[in-house]
Backbone:
C-alpha cells in the first residue's frame, strides 16, 4: 500500500511512518457499521497487514463516535438486513470482528463504542481511550445476540461479573471506569488520542518485527487453550525461536540499543 492516504467506502486509510491508520468515516451515522463499511474493512486491514512498510495498525473513528455498532436502519430494512449480516460474517476461519492479522492492532477509542462497535474494539490487541470514550453492550436491548466473541473477550477484559452486568443492563461505562476495570490501557485527553497512539505504535515498531509478531501469535493461540496448554505452547515457541537463531538468544545490536534506552529512561 505504501505511504499516503486513501479513502475507501466510508473508511479512511493512512500510513504515518510505519503505522497504518484506519478511520471509520461515517460521522453522520456515528460510524455505524453499514454493509459498505463491513465490506471495505476486512480488505483494508489485510492490505495493511500485507504492507511491508507497516508494522502496527491503529483503528479509530471519525468524531463524535468510535462505532455505534451495526447500522440499525439497514438491519431493519427488508431488502438490506440479511445482506448486512452476511457482510459482517468474516468467514468460517474468523470468529472476530476483524480478519486474522500478524501485526498488532491498537484501538483508539475516540467516543462511544456500542454493541458491534464494542466487539470491534475488543478485537484489537489493546485499547487507548479518549476521555470522551464510552462503552456499552446493548445486544439484549435491541433483541440480537453477539457473534464476534463478545461473551469471551469482554469477560477476559473486565471479569465475568462485570461483563454480565454490561450485557444484561446495556448501561454505558465511561472512560475512567473502563480504565479501572481493565477494558482500556490508557485514558488520554481527547486531542491527544491519535498522537498518543501513534507514539505508542512507533515504540512497538522499534522492537524486533519478527519477535513482536511471533509473540502476538503466541498470545492469540494461548488464549484459546487451557492455562497448562498455553504454558507448553510458549515453551515450544521459545525453543523453536532459539533453534532458528542458532542457539544465540536475540540480536547483539538490538541488545546494545535496548541497554542504551534503559540507561536513558532510568535517569
Residues:
Amino acid at each position: 500500500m505504501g505511504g499516503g492516504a486513501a479513502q475507501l467506502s466510508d473508511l479512511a486509510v493512512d500510513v504515518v511512518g510505519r503505522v497504518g491508520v484506519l478511520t471509520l468515516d461515517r460521522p453522520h451515522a456515528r460510524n455505524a457499521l453499514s454493509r459498505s463499511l463491513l465490506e471495505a474493512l476486512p480488505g483494508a486491514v489485510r492490505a495493511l497487514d500485507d504492507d511491508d512498510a507497516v508494522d502496527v495498525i491503529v483503528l479509530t473513528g471519525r468524531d463524535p463516535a468510535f462505532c455505534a455498532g451495526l447500522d440499525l436502519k439497514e438491519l431493519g430494512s427488508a431488502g438490506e438486513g440479511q445482506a448486512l449480516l452476511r457482510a459482517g460474517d468474516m468467514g468460517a476461519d474468523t470468529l472476530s470482528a476483524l480478519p486474522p492479522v500478524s501485526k498488532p492492532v491498537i484501538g483508539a477509542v475516540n467516543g462511544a463504542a456500542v454493541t458491534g462497535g464494542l466487539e470491534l474494539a475488543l478485537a484489537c490487541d489493546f485499547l487507548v481511550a479518549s476521555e470522551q470514550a464510552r462503552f456499552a453492550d446493548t445486544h439484549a436491548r435491541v433483541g440480537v445476540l453477539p457473534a464476534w466473541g463478545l461473551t469471551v473477550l469482554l469477560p477476559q477484559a473486565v471479569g465475568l461479573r462485570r461483563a454480565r452486568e454490561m450485557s444484561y443492563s446495556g448501561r454505558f461505562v465511561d472512560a475512567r471506569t473502563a480504565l479501572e476495570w481493565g477494558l482500556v490501557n490508557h485514558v488520554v485527553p481527547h486531542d491527544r488520542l491519535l498522537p498518543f497512539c501513534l507514539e505508542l505504535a512507533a515504540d512497538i515498531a522499534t522492537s524486533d518485527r519478527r519477535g513482536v509478531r511471533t509473540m502476538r501469535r503466541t498470545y492469540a493461540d494461548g488464549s484459546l487453550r487451557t492455562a497448562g496448554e498455553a504454558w507448553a505452547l510458549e515453551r515450544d515457541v521459545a525453543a523453536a525461536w532459539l533453534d532458528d537463531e542458532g542457539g544465540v538468544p536475540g540480536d547483539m545490536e538490538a541488545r546494545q540499543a535496548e541497554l542504551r534506552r534503559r540507561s536513558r529512561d532510568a535517569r
About this structure: The beta strands are 4-8, 11-16, 19-24, 56-61, 105-109, 112-114, 126-130, 134-136, 173-174, 186-188.
